[in-house]
């Protein structure tokens, strides 16, 4: 299957590290970004197969980022997993409308995140 690359977008560097370690442990390449704007800049030069994104971030929040991502032909169908403290159905619906593919709430189990990410790459 080859190595897949995942971008982790969160304003907390310690949280990005936790997610990155869980993904690297099972063989994924990881690119980190601190907010939506940083992610868009890095996507220009870093090929990714899936994105894990927080909702609440300074600069560009996660939902604005997903809306922007979906306008790009290259990433219009790239899977996006929202990983956030937001639990309201209204926020989840807003996420789906923006183009998010899945939603996990913090605190989370790294093994469940890895399982979900891997499910997007099964043929």
From TrEMBL:
Which superkingdom, per the lineage? Bacteria
GO BP field: phosphorelay signal transduction system
* UniProt-listed InterPro entries: Bact_response_regulator, CheY-like_superfamily, Sig_transdc_resp-reg_receiver
Chain positions with 4-aspartylphosphate modification: 54
Which keywords does this chain's UniProt record carry? Phosphoprotein
Q: Where is the Response regulatory domain?
A: 5-121
Q: What residue ranges are annotated as transmembrane?
A: none
What is the protein name stated in its UniProt record? Two-component system chemotaxis response regulator CheY
| Organism from which the protein derives | Sphaerotilus mobilis
